[in-house]
Amino acid sequence: MTLATNTAHTKTWQLGNIVYVAASRQLQCSGQQLYLEPRQHKLLLVLLHNALQVVSREQLIDTVWDGRIVSEGAINRAISMLRKALSSLDPQTEYIETLPKLGYRLRQHATVITLVPETSQPTVSKSSTPRLWLGSTLLATALCGMAIWFIITQASPQLSASGATPHTSFKGRESQLSSNSEANALLYQRTADNGNNQIWLNTLDDNQHQMLTDDATDSRYAVLSPDAKAFAFVAYTENSCKIMLQPISQTTEPGSQRELHQCPIDNIPMLSWRADGKVLYLRQRADKTQPYQLYQLVVATGKLRQLTLLPANYSGQGDTALAASTTSGRMALLRYLSPDNTELLLVDSNNGQIKTSQSLPINATALTWYNDNILLLSAGKTVYQYHIDRAQLIPLYQAADPIDSLTVLGNTLYYSSTEVHADIWQADSTGAISERINSSRLDTMP
Question: Which of 11, 154, 188, 232 minimizes the number of CB atoms within 10 Å of its CB?
Fold first, then answer.
């Protein structure tokens, strides 16, 4: 089987609830965007061209790996990463089916909805002089920081924001921010070269960055404990999802991780600490037919207790984000209603009782507490402030790129946003190419 690459990379596809813009390797769903790595991009194209049909491992090796010898583990990892990418945007739908001893099948219909004009590709000179060309990769995420402060009005305090400044400039993608109660440390998730995610710690006093987990395991959705002495995270393998606890020290000791809870394999738990550091809150679902709901996990014993209502009494399509207040006993939840509406719930973190609920005319995907009366939410490129006492939503800041996570340290808001980064490559007369310069910013000059 061969893949028609002349036009395959320029089409826009409708796949279930997801739109895939192949020209930019961008998945879109309900106002959210996600960019695929080149390997997952090629893999998805093969499945799209064979939607509802079985694609064997041999066919994948021939098209995605260009006939090179690869292990079953490499294919499994590639499929797993693509499956997780699709599930992160549309967790209610199963897109890729594994058929033992046969291969894989895309379970949703795939339709070409537009055709983007094809851009010219760099050609290799037949002379011996190498050529340099600029290749854009839409996979970088930068951590930015901006100052926020109160403007006192007669009605009640409001927030204002100055311009954002980049906080990191690493290769690849950083996301999933969290911080400690002393406001001097940032925890974040960073993608390694092999596609797995690692957890990193940034101490703001000296601006040092420390890698806390290696790239052997896909580590995600970490949250820093209030005292910054430990962090909880989700460890994924092909067949497991585990919530782990790991102490923080200058050197990571073997066996220092402790398993707190084993979650269903297709879950994206999303974690938040209680202010005393003794309890974790997480979202979990039994399977893809059920919505995400809120649970309480006692760190010392591993005891799990459901806080939100059973599915029979549940409104909405699932809890999409959560944040526990560091000073009060309240929990803020975002619940998906539609592509244009989100429900904000304030619940008692001890028993899950809903105190207030408010429908918001935005597709909010992340939130954090600024103080007891103000929440900060992100929807697309915009950060909003929500005043609890008057149930008012006010735009605070417009970023240049979509925001995927945010946290507050003192009077500074840190957020991660997906943006373009560009690489400079060298091509010789034989057609071999090599990377010369990698940047997490868009370089307009070679």
Answer: 154
